[in-house]
Amino acid sequence: MHDVHTVRAPSMLRLAAASLAGTAIEFYDFFVYGTAAALVLGPLFFPTFSPLAGTLAAFATFGVGFVARPLGSMLFGHIGDRRGRRPVLVASLLLTGAATVAVGCVPTYDSIGTAAPVLLLVLRFLQGLGLGGEWGGAVLLTAEHAPAERRALWSSFPQIGPSVGFVLANGVMLMLSTTLSDAQFAAWGWRVPFWAAGLLAAAGLWLRSSLAESPSFLEMEDHARVPLAEVVRDHWRLVLLTAGGLAVGYAVFYAVTTWSLAYGVERLGVSRTVMLSCIMAAVVVQGSLTPVVALLGDRYGRRPLCLAGCTASALWMFPMIALLSTGEPLLMFLGFLVALLAFITMFAVVAAYLPELYEPRVRCTGAAVGYNLGGVLGGALTPVVATAVAEGERVPWGVAAYLTGIALFSLGCFALLPETRPVPRMAVAPATE
Questions:
Q1: 3-state class (DSSP) for residue 177
Q2: What is d(CA 165, CA 28) in angstroms, rounded to the nearest whole number?
Q3: Radius of gyration of the chain (CA)
Q4: In this structure, are residues 276 and 173 in contact, taking their beta carbons and an 8 Å threshold?
Q5: CB 3.0-4.6 Å disulfide test: which of 68, 209, 237, 386 passes with 259?
Q6: CA atoms of 117 and 100, how far apart (whole Å)
Q7: pLDDT above 60 (res 177)
């Protein structure tokens, strides 16, 4: 069954490509910080700490970005539900890009003392604030234009953005870390990827300048006065269940891409180049398969894939840690790849799933707040907890147990959510509180 606002495939392709490019740029900004936190920020901004404490402190500033994301989703969700999805895309990209460039300009602890980590903290908060708004705007603009029978497919394109952003951020870091000496990389090389964010943000703004507003928003006659208040009053259970369900995806992704990078380099003695290459290769495969998994979501439903992804995550965490602990590139790659395939089994369809759970008047706020709260539960704490739990263990089985526990928790949350496919029109919410 087709939406009344079905958009022809060529137009959908342009819209999806612009959304993908925007999310890729914003997640580049977000990920380049995570890689820097794993590699250099500890000794540069927390030199009075021990190596372990410095890494923990750097990951704590990394986590602040996740804490800011739900606040960003509330701020930009309000704009998206009141003023339209399109303004959110421009404002969030500007904020994240500016904060990222500024991170590359912050003097180190040796230059300005404690002001250095404080500035880092503030800028990381602003990064998270912008990214919190980005997801809701990009996903809704794509999902609300798409035909119902292919909504998961088209809305999966913004979900490829994080993979592209990660590969881009780490590709630049990898190039710099292999062409510069350790001293040069620590002195100035790590700053270059942050400065490059300015050029990427300008390109993203140009790509998004011609996007049309969502038809569902244009049709609305009765806009929510305070969308967040309505979400809290009428949809609080949906928000909490979606946040809990998505927690495992964030935990798995950041365990692979951030914690394992630091663990491999610092504890296993594997070179930065080898670790980044293994992780990037797995992320490339994951990103490439995202539309394929989304097609399965259009055919078999959103909820079954989310349940399958949680189950696979729960079963794979101990094997992944065992493979990581070998320090062998091919075995580490295999561990990362299966974990990320379990992750994308869920995240390929949530861009269609979450918007379908909410009525149009509060959709931007509800979907984005649930999505970003999941980031706090699963993404903000994982590198910190995993680094602390892994201390002193020959094989960090405690990390595997922690991730398995989150997977089982998320499985329970998704089990309590309804299915939303097929939805004849985005204007009708299939599940309300």
A1: helix
A2: 4
A3: 20
A4: yes
A5: 386
A6: 15
A7: yes
